[in-house]
Amino acid sequence: MRLIALRILPMDDKVIDFRVHRRDVILFPVRSQVQRITYFLRGAWRLPMTATMVGSLGMLVVPSVALAAPRSPFSPASPQAQSIENLFIFQLVVAGLIFLGVEGVLLYSSFAHRSRPGRQAATFSGNTKVEIAWTAIPALLLIVVFILTVQTMHQATATATDPLTIRVVAHQWWWEFDYPNEGIVTANELHVPVGEQVVIHLESADVIHSFWVPELAGKTDANPGHVNEVTFTAMAPGTYLGQCAEFCGVEHTWMAIRVVAQSTQDYQAWVQMEKRPATTPPAGLAAQGAQIFTAEACGSCHAIAGTSANGVAGPNLTHVASRATIGAGVLDNTPANMARWLQNPQVVKPGALMPNFNLTPDQVNALTAYMETLR
Predict the structure, then answer these.
(1) DSSP helix/strand/coil, 47
(2) What share of the chain in percent tops pLDDT 90?
(3) Integer distance in angstroms from the first to the last C-alpha of the chain?
(4) Please, which residues have CB within 8 angstroms of residue 17's CB and are 6 or more apart in sequence?
(5) Across the strands, what pairs with 326?
(6) Domain 285-372 in CATH 2.60.40.420
């Protein structure tokens, strides 16, 4: 394994992005970790491959577990995630007991029947009862696990009579959320009401992705040309973080999912806000930004309700300023970060489909002012 890329983004939370052998990317806040990692990188290239692998795991995995934002399947926030955790805990306990039992018999036999001065090691030619037992017991356990697994699959996928249906389309590297009954299309932030079942119709616009919000549901692949379903019911208000769990290209890491579970009243207020079209700034810097948006043909890729922009290749921007992040999690959504993104998206998120338009600082400022009106 070789560490082939390192990118440090000057963000508020200072997140380091490691790529390991073009596989997955491990994220963790660095703050005081920068010096520690620098020392590691200086020495890693001089180590043999085996030592480098061990060092990579030790330096990358441990900090990620200790410092990353909580997104664990062991803190379920939906009945579906709870049923998955229950099955896992049962299997873990059973497997642990089997391991202890087998290792216990092995260690006991190794000492009790070993050769000693004046006595040879014990030999066994067979025991029909033991052989039947060690065949029957695992078979029965497998039957029990199979039954519980089928029950868990049913609990995790059963749908209510009138769920909230959302069409989710995975793109490289962002998420499109389409609420057909509400007439809303948004991106990267999924808003759902607490206590109401949500059924996601999941598909992909390009390559295979995987939708995973650990606290709410299990992993489900998003495949081009095929629709899969994800079912969950958020039981408490809050923000639940997820991630594309299938390597899908160079910016796979920055394909985050943010699920915002709200009370029914707050959710309805959000729906009404999202239904409102964008207002055109009457004058000033924001009005100049709206003109630049049209002149640069931004509307051929992005849609803004209430304007002539109706593109579908990129995220819908009608209420982009109300979202928490930019670029599916790569930057916090602040005016400064929006300006940085517009200046050159390829510096912030290399490989993103949005090119560098070589905008002047004045154009960037005007476009940023316009984006800030889209709430």
Answers:
(1) coil
(2) 58
(3) 45
(4) 6, 7, 8, 9, 25, 27, 253, 254
(5) 331
(6) yes
